[in-house]
Amino acid sequence: MTSPLHTASSIELQTRRQQQRVQLHKPISVINMNTHKVMGALVNITTEGFMLMSDTLIESNRIYPISLLLPDAMSGHKQVDLGTDCLWSRVEVEGGRYWAGFQIIDASRSALDRIEALIGEFSQISD
Q1: Can you tell me the distance from the alpha carbon of 21 to that of 43, in angstroms, rounded to the nearest whole number?
Q2: With left for phi above 0 and alpha for psi between -120 and 50, is residue 78 left, alpha or beta?
């Protein structure tokens, strides 16, 4: 069971989400480029956004420059750099972990191509 900490309801998010979420079967770490610290790991991703699981609370309604650390080099790249907006965050009551939803607001065409390749190579479709 989760309790909302901030912002948009799940109905609003489902209405706004244009693409189906895709879970990856390889761990992908997310790095905050301002602090160079691991924020958490991807739960699912599209070229429009992603959900993150973290051991620490991620502040919502904030812009984060992040880097996805790829499990294998893709086209010679080991990471994908993105500008993101954290739309919401919640605590998982039983596990003491945190969930956060991000919208991708700044990405180069090559970064989006690498996300699409990542989805194609390591995906598991989820509802």
Answers
A1: 9
A2: alpha
> Could you report how far apart the first and last alpha carbons of the chain are, in Å?
18
42/27 Cα distance (integer angstroms):
7
CA 112 to chain centre: 13
Residues 58, 62: Cα–Cα separation, whole Å: 9
- Give me the domains of the chain, ranges plus CATH numbers: 2-125 (2.40.10.220)
Q: Is 16 helix (H, G, I), strand (E, B) or coil?
A: helix
Q: Please list the rounded mean pLDDT of every run of 10 residues in the chain (127 residues).
A: 39 50 84 97 94 94 96 81 97 86 96 90 66
Enumerate residues 6+ apart whose C-beta is below 8 A from 113: 75
Residue type for position 23: Q
Residue type, 113: D
CA distance 119 to 49: 12
pTM (predicted TM-score): 0.79
